[in-house]
Amino acid sequence: MFSLRGIAALLSLPLVANFVNAAKHKAFVGREGAPDVFYTVEFDDEALTLELAANTSVPTPGGFVAFNFDKTTLYSTVQDYGTNGAGSTNLSVPVLTSYSIDADGNLTPSGELYATSDNADTFGSGVWVAANFAPPYEVHMISLNKDNKSGHIVMSVDANGSLKETSQTFVFGNTSYLHGGTFHPTMKWVYILDVDQNMIFTYSTNNGSVEYVANFTLPYPVDGPRHAIVHPNGQKLYLVTENSNHLAAFNIDLETGLPTGEGMVYYSMLQEGEDASLFWCSEVMLSPSNSLLWAANRGRVDGRNGSISLFTLDDEGEVEKQNFLINTTTSGGLANLVAPVLFSDRYIALPDLEVGFVEMWELAEDNSTATIIAHLDLADGGCCENVIWWS
Ligand SMILES: *[C@@H]1O[C@H](CO)[C@@H](O)[C@H](O)[C@H]1NC(C)=O
Ligand SMILES: *[C@@H]1O[C@H](CO)[C@@H](O)[C@H](O)[C@H]1NC(C)=O
Ligand SMILES: *[C@@H]1O[C@H](CO)[C@@H](O)[C@H](O)[C@H]1NC(C)=O
Ligand SMILES: *[C@@H]1O[C@H](CO)[C@@H](O)[C@H](O)[C@H]1NC(C)=O
Ligand SMILES: *[C@@H]1O[C@H](CO)[C@@H](O)[C@H](O)[C@H]1NC(C)=O
Ligand SMILES: *[C@@H]1O[C@H](CO)[C@@H](O)[C@H](O)[C@H]1NC(C)=O
Ligand SMILES: *[C@@H]1O[C@H](CO)[C@@H](O)[C@H](O)[C@H]1NC(C)=O
Ligand SMILES: *[C@@H]1O[C@H](CO)[C@@H](O)[C@H](O)[C@H]1NC(C)=O
Ligand SMILES: *[C@@H]1O[C@H](CO)[C@@H](O)[C@H](O)[C@H]1NC(C)=O
Ligand SMILES: *[C@@H]1O[C@H](CO)[C@@H](O)[C@H](O)[C@H]1NC(C)=O
């Protein structure tokens, strides 16, 4: 027998998803360099189509992208590995660019800032960026030069989000290979992940003043943390690794912000019998309800297909199970970064750089698999890297 509440849930959920919310949702697409354009894509949640909504010419080749707290500014690293002659870009020094976003989602360049420090010229190019969502909204970038140094660079911003100046740099020697990070939901701490040292560095971010707190070494066999995300309860960190190809989850101390490693669980992101050295995990993201966790890996060589995996979480953010691990249709190139939409748990975007496209995947009703429902070719040599949903 159905309870009244059960019937209400059955009736209202599809109504919300299919009718009340029927809309087009915009996302910006990060890149791996030239040509100097930014793509805006649009997902129609009724027709289930993905289209190119805007192709904006910009002064600098784009990279990994992130929003500020109210999505009125987009920050982009400049990831051009020498294929583009773009005038203003000095590739020996990490560069960050900012774009203001108007109410319709149009981009206007609003700043370009080179990291400044005694040895910034050994930092290589920016590979990851995220803005603090708490005042004064400083922006954190990771830069990487595999032959010498990595940097964690902090840049201050004006009230309108435009980049102002390099406020701090943290230099890492060539035993490090920084490649990603994430904020604690309180915005009091930022975690920077080091693939080669198998470490997480915790920094406090007090009113724009960033301080190193401690490092945490991941336990064997979890190896090579690349990207991470923290549950909104602030007590569970999820990460994916480049070397061992795991999804790992463990506790954070809510008082100190430090990862404790307690309650650690980990799952393989490799298909049966696959060799870890041929894959490197790319991304981990929560669904909007925080009850599902998406993760992905990619092949290190073209033709070696990547995978998408889904995990079910309980109310506390504990991983209950790995629902599936299914192949993507390409290696993903340097991309395959899953990007759940904001309005539903049922859809994710998946960008690819081997061929150059963005796809939409839909989760099956019983959460047992996902299928491609829309595909947009964007094969220009530099697209695509990450996708960030604006609406
Ligand atoms: C975007 O614009 C550029 C420059 O105008 C053009 O060369 C390119 O073909 C466009 N890309 C797409 C996917 O339409
Ligand atoms: C943002 O604010 C700064 C400082 O007031 C100003 O110099 C800059 O022109 C502004 N940028 C935009 C895009 O409005
Ligand atoms: C690039 O940056 C380096 C290090 O700051 C500097 O020495 C060099 O002059 C810059 N080159 C250009 C073309 O701006
Ligand atoms: C790391 O730096 C040291 C000191 O500069 C150098 O001797 C070594 O060759 C570097 N290693 C790599 C892998 O670049
Ligand atoms: C850093 O690595 C780059 C190549 O990626 C090389 O050109 C540069 O000389 C290196 N700098 C130092 C200080 O070792
Ligand atoms: C944050 O720093 C700014 C200047 O850097 C200062 O004016 C402000 O009072 C500080 N706020 C707090 C809460 O400490
Ligand atoms: C990690 O922390 C330990 C303990 O404080 C310290 O001895 C070590 O130098 C740190 N390692 C790095 C790479 O920061
Ligand atoms: C997924 O890819 C693996 C190779 O990594 C292959 O062995 C397996 O057959 C593929 N599965 C499907 C359903 O295509
Ligand atoms: C990768 O996926 C494509 C599309 O599903 C398939 O045609 C191809 O055989 C797969 N490659 C491997 C090595 O599994
Ligand atoms: C599928 O996931 C949703 C969360 O989006 C959850 O509400 C639902 O119970 C799950 N269904 C099954 C069969 O596990």
UniProtKB/TrEMBL annotation:
Entry keyword annotation includes Iron-sulfur = no
Write one Gene Ontology MF term.
6-phosphogluconolactonase activity
Record-linked Pfam families:
Lactonase (PF10282)
Keyword terms of this UniProt record: Signal
Which InterPro entries does its entry note? Answer: Cycloisomerase_2, Lactonase_7-beta_prop, WD40/YVTN_repeat-like_dom_sf
The secretion signal range is: 1-22
Alphabetized PANTHER family for the sequence: 6-PHOSPHOGLUCONOLACTONASE-RELATED, CYCLASE, PUTATIVE (AFU_ORTHOLOGUE AFUA_6G11580)-RELATED
Give the record's family classification: Belongs to the cycloisomerase 2 family.
- Write the protein's name: 3-carboxy-cis,cis-mucoante lactonizing enzyme
Which species is this record about?
A: Pleomassaria siparia CBS 279.74
